[in-house]
Design brief:
alpha/beta; 15 helices; binds ligand TNX
Length: about 500
Amino acid sequence: MTNNKQIEKLSSAWQGLIPKPVSLEKMDGCFCINQETKIVIASAEEEILKIGQYLANLLKPATGFPLEITKSTNYVAQNIISLSIKHDPSLKEEGYELVISTESINLSANKGHGLFNGIQTLRQLLPITIESNVKQDGPWELDALIVKDYPRFSWRGAMIDVARSFFTVEEVKRFIDLFALHKINRLHLHLSDDQGWRIEIKSWPELTSHGGKCAVEGGSSGYYTQDQYKEIVRYAHERFMLVIPEIDVPGHTNAALSSYAELNSDGIAPPYFRGMKVGFSTLDTDKDITYEFLTDVFTEIASITPGPYLHVGGDEALSTTEEEYSHFLSRLETIIASLGKTMIGWGEVGHYENLNSSAIIQLWQSPAKKDHEFALKHGIKTIMSPAHKIYVDMKYDESTHVGQDWAGYVSVETAYNWDPTSVYEGFNEEDILGIEAPLWTETIHNTVDADYMYFPRICGAAEIGWSPKDNRSWEEYCLRLARLGKRLEQLGVNFHRSPLIPWK
Ligand code: TNX
């Protein structure tokens, strides 16, 4: 067999799944979902019932089958999709086992999150027409097989910058669903920047009544009320995705400074900023009101954020001296700790000498900047977002119609062919929480362009975060991605048809 044929065979054995599971063993025959198939829940727990409902809702539009959900522990095991909880330490928090036989489908996991992940695998194993909103002809056949699967890293994130250009609740929900298909479990919302403030803060209403009305040139303005933000959090939570809110300080704050004159050193509110430069704005690190402001803002956000994390930005504070920056961070750290939350900051926060080791650092700059050495010195956990590998606002190549290129071009291959342990020197796997792909929106102002920049690079990021390193190969990934293209098309995703991929 030629090498190409071997790769083809390998990829089809993996059934086009992205991320690739830890193990998949094919058996003889297949199972067919029909109108009599029942979803059987072997536990009365509310969470499992909800997951059963999620599965039924997922299958209904395309199949037209209103699949019945039955609660039972000893159901006749024929023509069923069973969801059950078991105790298998090897599957950890998010893993699952999916057994498809000619008689039934049995999905089991330690936790609801594992069942949810298993459902995403099941979804990718079904014909792509399953993604249709209108009834399609079957048959809804699945090869008999056993998948045993769990993630390599616990943090598999996507970031969207809604500050430069705003995205509505409905648009964000659509991204949540598309990301969940690839087992992404963190949604980081960049909620404030020079160009706009996007979250209602009741004690500082001008932030949104004034700061929410600006955006980058050509972008959309707007903001989320606290109720809308809670709705995003709820929707994400139902899909086992944690929302991480970011308020970027002390730099990247022109929208706030423009909303409240008293936050400025000279007491004068600057005009709106619609450009693309960075590093010119800063909160006044000496003024008491700065810390009252931060306490109010983070207290309100903490009260509507059930997850344990608050992201404080901290990047590109180029108008703040080192001394001011350290003083600022020491006070901010106290505020975040008093709210019982874990602080996350971009790589630069590591430069602050006394950073608490419970903080998390999100590395983004090139290794030459040495941010990672500070992270290592603090013995701190990190999220890997190296711009030259995973910034999905970077152009694919010179022909990409939107995006930037300051970190170089990030082709589909570049975005896939790297490992979180080897971008920055000195990291062990245990020091790394996982990966996150940020979409900055200076030039990306609608979902059509956002789709184009996320997809298919976000699929590769998801695989880097989930799949065992030794299981991954670019050549074989290309073929799985080629198959996934059809599914993305069916889902209405405007993905980049990279010439590197042999699309079907
Ligand atoms: C750098 S990455 C930034 C952002 C920009 C982005 C554009 C980071 C922490 N800061 O403010 O939007 O580059 O690619």
